[in-house]
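[Meeting: bench + compute handoff]

Bench side (C.D.) handed over the final construct sequence. Compute side (W.E.) agreed to return the predicted structure before the next meeting so the bench team could plan truncations. Sequence as handed over:
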Amino acid sequence: MRLAILATLLSLIGPVAVTADDAQPSVQAYQADEIQLTDAARKKMADWAVAFLKTANFNTVNQPDILKQSVQVVHEHYRATVRKSYVVVTFSQPITVKTVGGNVVAQEIVVGLNRKDEWPSALFTVDADGRVVAHEKYGAKLPPELQPQAAGGAR
């Protein structure tokens, strides 16, 4: 339904003039449904996400020379994560978390759930300015409720 509305809106806008020197933009569309969580599950996920973030050794803000990930690469990995299974924890105010790799300010923590084992597939934070930060070399397994066998391996 959303894609049909998007297609209708785009047809109303009409073609956009692009010169020969302009590269054609990459355009992709995805649709996913939210999983309903109880209040207790939300609290547990939020606590786990903060604890998980604390295990991160590197991030694209504090160690950009080690990770060598461009903004484009970070955003591509982020989009690939959030178009599949993930948990997002959004705080009403930014929080500062002391990670192995240094302090991180986060408005949101995003954890990818796209592996077939008990490990998260990705970890990102989004700061108060909307900047997506990738985190690497983390060390916490998913809580049992989020592991593939808990969902019948259907993640």
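W.E. noted at the follow-up: The helical segments are 2-13, 39-54, 64-67, 71-82. C.D. will use this when planning the next construct.
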